[in-house]
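Appendix B. One record, verbatim.
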Amino acid sequence: MTKIRRRQRCPRCGSLDIIRWGIRSEHQRYRCSNCGSLFVVHHEYVSDRNRFVWFRKWVLGKQTLTDISAASGYSERQLRRWFDEYLYKAPDWVIQRRKRAHILIDGTWLDKDHCLIIYRDHDSKSTLFYRFSKDENEYEIIKDLQVFKQLKLNIESFTTDGAEPIIRAIKYAYPYKVRQRCIVHIERECLTWLTQHPKMAAGITLRRLVCQISHIKTNNDKLFWLMQLNKWYEDYGEFLNEKTVNKETGEITYTHDSVRRAYIHIHRAQKNMFKYIEFPGVPNNTNGLESFFGHLKDNLRIHRGMSIEHRENFIKWYLFFANEKKKSEG
């Protein structure tokens, strides 16, 4: 079996494009073809920094241990030992102060007993804070929001989906702040109930109105759409309230329950659907957070098999590195 030679990394720019450049004090000297710097590898901190560089690639990228081993020259066994050392400890998290913040809040399920809740700043596209929980717990979210108040963060708005615990927590901690409902979630929920091809005129017309929500940009658009929605209710209000009696059980249910659910969902969200028009700068959806969850879960699937402790610390490192990446890009 051919032994893989460990590749050297430039301590100045991090490039792997390195060539040998003579001997100095009985140590091999190297030259970086990328930045031109000369260096000798005999300090322990260079090795430590190399380990951390590969660990960061493993967490943020979609590379397996086999991929990292082939690129770095370290064995998979050695890499696993080093990476486990990092996974046994989480990075220190500091809530960064901002001039203003439009906060997106949402949770995602890692499995049936573990939920990750993230508070994301829409403007900087970075994570403000996070929490691991068994569910979207109202009292835990209130505690997090109270910490933001103690730190005197300048929060201008909150954008959420329809999760009641999150909405109630914001009402309690920040009763006078702007609350925007994610219009993409409203559309998605309603279209699920209305189906792709509703059979009755009420469902067909309401579906057409639902598909227009994401295209509402101005106050005139909003007023015209609300006028159409009110006209729809005038036409189909009695239709929504029709009931059916089950002859066998005697149970009374709404005849057109799916259409009724879609309308009630819009009606309840209506108060906070169009805050982004009244207050420019307020995000009208949580798509950025949904996308972030998707990338995170893709990486977790690649590295599946970790213990619960390692998985949680992997997520903490992922959030930490993602924030550092945003800082460097900014």
